[in-house]
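USER:
I would value a second opinion on how I read folds in token form. Give me a protein, with the fold worked out from its sequence. Write it directly below this note and I will take it from there.

ASSISTANT:
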Amino acid sequence: AVRDLFAAVAGGRREASVRVRLLGEARPIEVRASLMQHERIAHFIVRMEHPPNRDAGDRGHELGDVLDQLPDGVVMTDESGLILAANQTFADLTQCGNALLLRGEPLERWIGLPGVDIPVLLGRLRERGSMRLFRSVLHDVHGGSCAAEISAVAIPDHTQNCLAFSIRAIDQRLESEPVNGLLSRNVDQLSDLVGRVPLKDLVREATDMIERLCIEAALDLAGDNRASAADMLGLSRQSLYMKLRRHGLGDLDPPGEN
């Protein structure tokens, strides 16, 4: 049975499993195998475990198969952001090849700017328990990146609190979608001024509009933490405070307030 399992995986199956018994034991175990390429050599990754019971085990396999077929990446981490499990889609998005290789990796390696996006996400999850449509960047092992949209929820458990993330690459959708919301309305208003206002004034007005929208978005994502917002925008805190004063945004407390 185990030889057949290896043959199935070597023949192209992404992952396969079989139930067998260890010598001298009555209780069955499950053997799961997948293939990993390393330095042009194929290796089998094998996991053996006792299923809790037949019905729960079967439901677990079905759920795992469903998660692997989802078009979005799904990742579960501990409270510090270390990956406990990931579906195959996330492994494909990061070009890691096999989801098992992601276990123990910090999610921060794959998501956002180091020290910025993941701390903001973890902080919001601690405060609110969930988050929807957080815009960030997804990285792969080859140094590539794409825009990503993240939803997450904190999952309390009696043994360990976990965090679950749904991660969607959105570059293609962003390219096909028109500019929307406030930005679209402001662009329309600027267009109405063409021919009545000098170009240099229109450019200055458009720059101010985009700068304000970006600052507001960063403050919203950072939960109004201005230090994190400054990091997101690539600004020093002093520069951010100057721009806040210029645009009349928020309460202008001294720079040591958070």
About this structure: Residues 199-221 form the longest helix (23 residues). The first strand starts at residue 15 and ends at 20. Strands lie at 15-20, 29-38, 41-49, 73-78, 83-86, 130-139, 145-155, 162-169.
